[in-house]
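Action item from last meeting closed. Structure (114 res):
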């Protein structure tokens, strides 16, 4: 089972940037697609972005297209979510997730507020 640990969350102003990381244990990390999800207070967990195991294919929810970029470094067992032009509605706990396998990290809080 892959173990995932998210980091990089924090407080950002509207229009600002944050860079989230998802660090994974296990040499089989490179075989998994990785997704980022987020969950705002009182709302369901929402898909944000996905990257293929080799890093060549990515897709995003419409609300973050052009602002967020997902990437991965399989040599370092990490996936990164670069978040630019942040909006208050991006405020949520962000989680990474393996596909298949279904492993989840503990999440990292992102708060966008002036």
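Sequence:
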């Amino acid at each position: 089972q892959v173990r995932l640990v998210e980091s990089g969350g924090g407080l950002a102003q509207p229009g600002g940037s944050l860079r989230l990381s998802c660090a994974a244990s296990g040499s089989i990390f490179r075989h998994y697609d990785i997704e980022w999800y987020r969950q705002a207070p009182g709302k369901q967990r929402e898909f944000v972005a996905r990257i293929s195991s080799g890093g060549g294919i990515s897709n995003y929810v419409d609300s973050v297209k052009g602002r967020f970029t997902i990437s991965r470094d399989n040599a370092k067992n990490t996936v990164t979510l670069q978040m630019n032009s942040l909006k208050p509605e991006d405020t949520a706990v962000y989680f990474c997730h393996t596909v298949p396998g279904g492993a989840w990290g503990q999440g990292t809080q992102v708060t966008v507020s002036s």
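Note appended to the action item: The radius of gyration is 13 Å.
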